[in-house]
Amino acid sequence: MTPTKRGIVLGALLAIGGVALTVAALQQPLAGQEAPRVVEAEQLKDNLFLLTGGGGNSSAFVTEGGVVVVDTKNPGWGQPLLDAIGSVTDKPVTMIINTHTHGDHVSGNVEFAENIEIVAHENTRTNMQEMRPNSSAAPSTTPPLNIFRDNGGRGMPTQTFTDRMTIGSGRDQIDLHYFGRSHTNGDAMVVFPAHRVMHIADAFPAMDMPIMDANNGGTGVGYADTLEKASAFVDGNIDTLISGHSATTTTPADLKRFIQFVRGYVSDAQAAKRDGKTVDAFADAWMPPAGFTARQARVRSNARLIFDETR
């Protein structure tokens, strides 16, 4: 290739590269501009979908009569969630089930149609009336957002349960279980019996330190005992668990390992209190076992609760 032709080719390549870079730059959000809100849908079973992004994991269960959605994500993510559901079915959403009160699981409620039935544990409904921040959140001088009060009560549960509730029948059946206090005092565990799947949400955040939210009735000392009850039901009934934030599903064996992790942490915190250590001294020294993660803020706030609950 002659120097002249080489220069022409190089110039063309640089021009193409410049155009590509320009297009890529145009596709990126500008400084201060919010990135597009996209919810990803993954088909777990023929009519059951996992929806990730924008807060806590959601499930969409497509029944003969419509779509039942479990949890609705952060404020402003209700419509992206609806868009994702619309990409897998043309049936309307007829029901929302909220697993617990935290804003990253319930705030999207207000963006769904007003006539949708919304189901939650009775304690969760009470908690949603107040929308208190979770115990591990950093203290704030501003009043907490109450998206339901700000929307005239729209999005609040219209039906509640205490220990167990069954919705539908046959392949469309959904069972709601409450095994006791853990993450909050209203953690609903949602079972799709035909698929042997349980949406367990934040009570089992995969292999991460959970939030033991005292502000919303959660417990530290009783956490593992509650999950033991859930695990006893899971054995023989459930093959797959949907956690609150994990991008992948988990198994009954994972739940058992998590229970032992929580039990060990609580035991360590109680021993530290008996030895006269402070919460800060314990939290600064404690390390999670191999295979688990633990954010320092959660280790500290959970330890404070465990110290308070341990007499």
For the structure shown, list the relevant keywords:
311 residues; single chain; disordered N terminus; alpha/beta; 8 helices
SSE topology:
Blueprint: H1 3-27, E1 40-45, E2 48-52, E3 58-62, E4 67-70, H2 78-86, E5 93-97, H3 103-106, E6 117-121, H4 122-130, E7 159-161, E8 164-167, E9 174-177, E10 189-192, E11 197-201, H5 223-234, E12 240-243, H6 252-274, H7 279-285, H8 296-309
Parallel strand pairs: 4-5, 5-6, 6-7, 11-12
Antiparallel strand pairs: 1-2, 2-3, 3-4, 8-9, 9-10, 10-11
Helix pairs in contact: 5-6, 7-8
Description:
With 311 residues, the protein is α/β, with parallel strands linked by helices. 33% of the residues lie in helices and 17% in strands. It has helices spanning 3-27, 78-86, 103-106, 122-130, 223-234, 252-274, 279-285, 296-309, and strands at 40-45, 48-52, 58-62, 67-70, 93-97, 117-121, 159-161, 164-167, 174-177, 189-192, 197-201, 240-243. Strands 1-2-3-4-5-6-7 form a seven-stranded mixed beta sheet. Strands 8-9-10-11-12 form a five-stranded mixed beta sheet, with no helix packed on it. Helix 2 links the parallel strand 4 (67-70) and strand 5 (93-97). The radius of gyration is 23 Å and the shape is globular.
Biggest sheet details: 7 strands, mixed
The number of distinct helices, counting runs of at least 4 residues, comes to 8
Could you give the distance between the termini? 85 Å
Q: Which strand order do you get reading across the main beta sheet? A: 1-2-3-4-5-6-7
Architecture in CATH?
4-Layer Sandwich
Using the coordinates shown, work out and report the CATH topology: Metallo-beta-lactamase, Chain A
What is the element string, with H for helices and E for strands? HEEEEHEHEHEEEEEHEHHH
* Overall pLDDT level: 90
The gross shape turns out to be globular
What structural class is derived from the secondary structure elements?
A: alpha/beta
